[in-house]
Design brief:
Elements: H1 9-12, E1 15-18, E2 24-27, E3 56-66, H2 68-84, E4 88-92, E5 96-99, H3 101-116, E6 120-124, H4 128-136, E7 143-144, H5 146-154, E8 171-178
Parallel strand pairs: 3-4, 3-5, 3-8, 4-6, 6-7
Antiparallel strand pairs: 1-2
Length: about 180
Amino acid sequence: MNTHLTSSPISRYASTQITASGAAVTDRTRPAAGETGLSPVVHERPRLTLVSPPAWSHKLILTGSLNRRSALELEDEIECLCQEGVTTLTLDLRQLDAIDADGITAIASRGAACRQQDRKLTVISDSRIIQRALAEAGTPELLSSERSETVAAGSGGFDSSGFAASSLADRSTTTIKRL
């Protein structure tokens, strides 16, 4: 008797025997001759779940002067951070001694580049001059305040198990860059 693979291990080992009285009896409890008695492995289709990559927030605190020379250095630093996987970059300009038009342009152009890569760049500055310069450069949406950033970071809350609502894989880093 040829056996056929089916999804039911019972029907695989079913055999029919004729008794002396002529009645057909089906034995579904023992394997056929030469069989091991083990059911074949039925592979399910793999279940894939798409997950977004973990968020990486980085604060870059700038000190010194942001001018023509250091603007290129800043652009390289931002590009490097994005290539390493930073998803949200905050430039903290509160410790800058000076900034010129090239520095403002570098920040505005990197902000546009980050948006195109689905990344977020924000700027923290207490200086009304820098805030006005960024607004005039057409990028007022880059401006953030430390207070609103702190509130946003703390507003995630906790889920029902008591863990922070954000993913445990998310990370936050800070570096100070002397220009």
